[in-house]
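Reading a protein record of the kind used here takes only a little practice. Think of the row as the fold of the chain written in a discrete alphabet. A record is reproduced here so that you can trace the correspondence yourselves:
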Amino acid sequence: MPSPAVLFEHARPLPVESPTPAPTGPAALAAALAAASHRWLDRVRYRPLSRWTQLLEAADAALLLHPDLHGDLAGAQIWVLSWLPGQGTPLHDHGRSAGALAVVRGVLTERVVATGPSGVHETTARLGSDRLRQFGEHYVHQVTNEDDEPAVSVHVYTPALREMNTYDVQRGRLLHTGTEKAGVDW
């Protein structure tokens, strides 16, 4: 078996099937990679102590995508993540990066926190394999696998993820608690 670090070692380019241009952007990339999951899902790994993450290089992603989406890979960063029951993220944003996430297997729970003139507003949504979440920069959320089964998701960021800010909600206010930097903290 190939190394688990090589997620898409044997992928072949998808045939061009439609003359109609496909939607573009991070959401289109995440949706297309989720739709092609039958070609890579068997390479996902699970870690009991923390989420498993794998950066997907643009050249590898191109092998799985319709050529109409290849231009969107420039400047995008793609991650595949696995989530065992109970695993999750802290409340965070993606700095100056916008993006999208698609759940490929299982169900993830997303807590979204927004601030406005009336204070902090929180919502929670269950994201299954039929859901795609698109978000702008400084979108504050927390993602957790609260179910009994493992989950897998694809995340696309543009521009590439360089920082993640963490937060806490205290006394009705959203408080910045830290910043993690690419190349230093992950």
Summary: The longest strand covers residues 108-116.
